[in-house]
Amino acid sequence: MNAKSGANKTDDKGAEAKYTNHSLDEVASMVCATVSVFDTKVQNTFRDFEECNILRPFMGDTIKEIAKACQTLEGKDSSPTAVKMLHALHSEMTKLYILRLCSWMRVTTKEVSKHETWVTLSTLERNKSPYAISCLPLEFREITISAMDRIELMIFNLRNETAKSYDITRQLQEIHESVRLAFLNSFRDFAGYLGTFGAELAQSRSNKENNHVQNGYMNGTDRESSASMDGDLHKKLLVVLSNIGYCKAELSDQLYNKYRHIWSPIRDNDERSADMRDLVTSFSGLEDKVLDQYTFAKSNVIRNAAHNYLLDSGIHWGAAPVVKGIRDATLDLLHILVAVHAEVYSGARPLLEKTMKILVEGLVDIFLSLFYENKAKDLRTLDANGFCQLMLELEYFETVLNTYFSTEAQQALKSLQESLLEKACESGSEDAASDDKQVPSVSPDDLLALAQQHGSDLLQGELERTRLNIACFMEPTLQSGSKTSAYSSYQAPAPHHPQAQVSSPSFRRQQASSNSPIVSRRRR
After folding, report:
1. Which terms are listed as keywords in the entry (predicted)?
2. What is the pLDDT of residue 317?
3. pLDDT in tens, 342-354
């Protein structure tokens, strides 16, 4: 028994001698070699991780263990070179993990952006945002938060655990800038993916229109199917528009302010302004592009309705009936704008005014275009009743849509009214020349005075009669005494109504004498 115990003691002394026969430099060299091998294996493992494993605890736990190893070596007075190597490993692994998180953020954003449900979220789900977004921006938000929260923790730990013993200012600056650029580029990437959806929808619309042109005539079923497809396309464009507006107005500012301290510990308002201006510019340019696609699609619908209103409503403008009020065709055309108003109000309310102004200006331009296209055909003649009918209805449109009449739209309407007056005067002169009794033609002033009289007699009643149809546009202006004369600026002698003022809010032209007014502007 004693012999065996003595043998064990002899072995222990031999083993101790074996490991204590090395010099301090040799031990330090062995530790450095071990750390170096560990460094290589960890770096290769971190780089080889698939994206699906980035958020799993492997990398974060490994970095924690490296930090613990650093503390252990420091506490045992180990070789400074080995400790320095281990701290460098900790710093490099943290940086590598952060870069992998940045990469994961962008790669995952690309993956989720391939699939759009086109289903808008409820007001509660989107936190009462006025933008009726789909789930896509919120998925992007969750991806960004998942990555940035981990990055924030990694940088915090790196500052606390390594910066105490070593100067890592340069490494931190590199990490800060990498994170900042990854954050901004992630938003730019997402904006690009949203823009791709808009471009694909526009291309789909273009292909459908080309198919209709090639196929020619569409029967009733085809027309219904086409209208349904158009409505679905317009709603999808509005979803894209809402997602863009939400990112521009809410999400980018929210997340930037949440994480800017990561790369800018010292408050730098100039940097913030530059970054936010860059993001807003990216989304604004995209927003304008998709809004153009949306309004263009809606303008095609408006043009068809305007064509029916002006040319296919069953009225012959050279022998029009007595004016009794606005026609049903007027309301049919206006209902399209009412529908757009409701669609944009519920889907992208902050863009409502901009959208409606574009469409209202487009409506007047369409009127002008149709007039010039048909002035030698369906609109070859325009008698006094036809002129007064159109002037009343244009005044009705202008009054109802007044909130959305831009300066350009008013100028276009003025040009249209001038063209109608000129056409009515030409038609009256031709009728008088062909009349054996040589009855004098009606003067421009008489025509304008007659149109004003019809407006005074009928417009307010028509606004009251159709108040439910137009409530979304002008309910506040239907209050008693709120309506102003639609002919308040154009003054001209009127033989039959000497006290009257004849003008329109967009028909502003002073007349030097009682002769026929000069048509000064053409808009084709």
Report:
1. Exocytosis, Protein transport, Transport
2. 92
3. 999 999 999 999 9
Better-predicted residue by pLDDT, 120 or 524: 120
State the virtual CA torsion across 473, 479, 482, 487 in degrees, nearest 10.
60
Looking at the structure, tell me whether residues 363 and 214 fall in a common domain.
Answer: no
Q: Which residues pair with 507 in a beta bridge?
A: 504
Write b or e for each residue in 434-472: b if 16 or more Cβ atoms lie within 10 A of its Cβ, otherwise e: eeeeeeebbbbbbbbbbbbbbbeebbeebbeebeeebee
Together in a domain, 258 and 325: no
Domain count, the chain: 2
**400 lies in which domain range?**
313-478
The 10s digit of each residue's pLDDT in 53-100 is 778 887 888 888 888 888 777 766 667 777 787 788 888 888 988 999
Q: What is the pTM of this model?
A: 0.79
379 and 428 housed in the same domain: yes
- For residue 188, being part of any structural domain is answered with yes
Q: Is 505 helix (H, G, I), strand (E, B) or coil?
A: coil
Angle at 178 between CA 89 and CA 40, to 5 degrees: 25
